[in-house]
């Protein structure tokens, strides 16, 4: 049972990822941002698409489904039950703690409402790998569009209980802008300063800043650090409820 993960940029700032099980040949696309880009990545590896694992209903995550199904008519589209009607063409709907198999690989579904009300993430526990969609980004988190801010905070807190070594893939390369914002609300964080410099250097060379790890995010991502005294002090909310601090951080980032 060997898993391969292949990440590739597409559209303006999206990432596609292929998950391949070498034992069975099964291959999943995490979301379907752009059929042509996914097909090119498949062709480059010589893989046949068997599954599409959808995180949420936004067009830049599902618009490639039709084109991929045209090329691979047997592909199975897996999507959150709560958003399947908005996505269309779904073959299997899933809910919290369901297991999705890609060949012999297994992903656990974790519901993370916030960015959208039915957003889910896929955790390949045996591979220590999480596909976080638009819930958690490197140094940031998704905009909270369909739920109260508290709901998104609870979703992010769920993810902090995964193993620290978890590799995290996300839907977008927003890390430079996230790093610049993070420095404004966590200005004394030495690890963050180092990482921000690293991120700027990677992007200057056109290299991806993802995947990240949960350990790195806990040390540097302000949206996971709303309970941190330094962050709270920096935003003038020392001792406040972390969920309220998170809400303040998210609103600041929206305006940044
Ligand atoms: Zn989205």
Tags for this entry?
256 residues, alpha/beta, Metallo-beta-lactamase, Chain A, six-stranded mixed sheet, 10 helices, 14 strands, 23% strand, globular, binds zinc ion
In the CATH hierarchy, the architecture of the domain at 3-122 is: 4-Layer Sandwich
Trace the largest sheet across and list its strands: 1-2-3-4-5-6
Query: What is the name of the CATH topology of the domain at 3-122?
Result: Metallo-beta-lactamase, Chain A
Number of helices: 10
Radius of gyration: 18 Å
Kindly name the structural category.
Answer: alpha/beta
What's the order of the H and E elements?
Answer: EEEHEHHEHEEEEEEEHEHHEHHH
Number of strands: 14
Gap between N and C termini: 44 Å
Strand content: 15-25%
Bound molecules: zinc ion
Largest sheet: 6 strands, mixed
What is the arithmetic mean of pLDDT?
A: 97
Residue windows where pLDDT falls under 50 for at least 5 positions: none
- Specify the CATH class of the domain at 3-122: Alpha Beta
Give the helix proportion (percent range): 25-40%
What kind of assembly state do the chains in view correspond to?
A: single chain
The name of the CATH superfamily of the domain at 3-122 reads Ribonuclease Z/Hydroxyacylglutathione hydrolase-like
């Amino acid at each position: 049972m060997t898993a391969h993960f292949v990440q590739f940029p597409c559209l303006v700032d999206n990432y596609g990822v292929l998950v391949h099980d070498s034992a069975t040949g099964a291959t999943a696309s995490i979301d379907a941002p752009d059929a042509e880009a996914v097909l090119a990545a498949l062709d480059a590896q010589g893989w046949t698409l068997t599954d599409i694992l959808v995180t949420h209903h936004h067009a830049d995550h599902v618009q490639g489904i039709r084109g991929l199904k045209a090329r691979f008519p047997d592909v199975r589209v897996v999507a959150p039950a709560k958003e399947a009607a908005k996505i269309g063409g779904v073959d299997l709907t899933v809910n919290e703690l369901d297991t999705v198999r890609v060949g012999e690989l297994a992903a656990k579904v974790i519901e993370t409402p916030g960015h959208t009300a039915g957003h889910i993430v896929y955790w390949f526990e045996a591979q220590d790998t999480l596909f976080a969609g638009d819930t958690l980004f490197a140094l940031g988190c998704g905009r909270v569009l369909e739920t109260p801010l508290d709901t998104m905070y609870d979703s992010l807190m769920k993810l902090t209980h995964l193993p620290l070594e978890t590799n995290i893939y996300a839907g977008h390369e927003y890390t430079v802008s996230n790093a610049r914002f993070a420095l404004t609300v966590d200005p004394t964080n030495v690890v963050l300063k180092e990482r921000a410099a690293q991120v700027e250097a990677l992007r200057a060379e056109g290299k991806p800043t993802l995947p990240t790890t949960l350990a790195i995010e806990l040390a540097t991502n302000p949206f996971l650090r709303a309970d941190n005294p330094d962050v709270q002090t920096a935003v003038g909310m020392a001792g406040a409820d972390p969920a309220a601090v998170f809400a303040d951080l998210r609103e600041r980032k929206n305006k940044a």
